Automatic annotation (TrEMBL):
SMART domains: HTH_LACI
Segments forming domain HTH lacI-type: 16-70
Lineage: Bacteria, Pseudomonadati, Pseudomonadota, Alphaproteobacteria, Sphingomonadales
Name the UniProt record assigns to this protein: LacI family DNA-binding transcriptional regulator
Matching InterPro entries: HTH_LacI, LacI/GalR-like_sensor
Pfam family, one: LacI
Keyword terms of this UniProt record: DNA-binding
GO MF term set: DNA-binding transcription factor activity; transcription cis-regulatory region binding
Amino acid sequence: MKKQMTRTKRRTTQAVKIDDVARQAGVSAMTVSRVMNRESGVREGTRDKVLKAVEALNYQPNRSARRLAKGAEVHIGLIYANPSDNYLGRFLHGALGAAQRSDNHLIVDICDENLPASYVSSALRLAKANIAGVILPPPISGSDEILSVFQELQIPIATVANGKKSQKFNDISIDDEGAAAKMTRHLIDLGHRRIAFIQGQSDQNSSALREQGFRREMRAADLIVDPAFVAPGQFTYRSGVEAAEFLLSCDERPTAIFASNDDMAAAAIGVAHRHGLSVPDDLSVVGFDNSPSAISVWPELTTIDQPVSAMAAAAFELVLSQINDAADKERGQTDRGLEDCQLIVRGSSGPCRE
């Protein structure tokens, strides 16, 4: 009995990290972050499991973060090169919120997405600013060069949507492939057979996974993916316009378009209107992300809800955890829990009328 009391006391005095809570509850660190920040979209049963783990481990995120440098404020770096303003805005909101809640600071640097060499320059600039850790969103989260810079400098890293298995850094990802398959099934269940797909940015792992999910579900339904119905995109509105113009110029046009993000889907709706097509009566259009643009078009977009702000906050908290426990920096604990994403059905998808 005495030994049991000693163990319990030790647990309450040690620094408990967000990934400790995640393991105890059997969920991802991102889910823990969403529960702690009182965000919607978490199942009640999952929320209860997380809160029980928080209570059992006496997890106190703010106090843990303030202990990082024995009272000193901690500066965490963030480098971005994402062409989507919608994605970037939500990502910064999540990371800045986590910094504010933990009484720490976020230092942001930008690099040119078209010049990979600028990634290393940005990394070195942040390193000179004496950052204690760094967050890397896509597409630079998949850059081996920038990862190597921070690893050589022994600066803790948390990536978002990296998609690579590694014991050297933490990663926060969603189940892009499963979510894309879910969206494709939604269109198939509506009777669509000629479904077109607009690809994402080629250097982002999430782009490949979303296309894999689309193709997987088409195969499962014994449907052929017409090569003419697959158009390149760059996750930008302009690339969505070009892709939709290409797809709607086909002799036998698709009855549905699945765009890899909401910006491109919004563009496809605009192109459909210019072609005199009614959405969704003549053409269903769906996206991915549930970004602000999803409810800024008419009809509003059917999409996949990707919790970008929560992912950024979880990445920030994972970096703090690594700094808080030097042992993590050495053995490289990796959080690779894939978060399931919710299908949001709105007015842009409807039954196939052909």
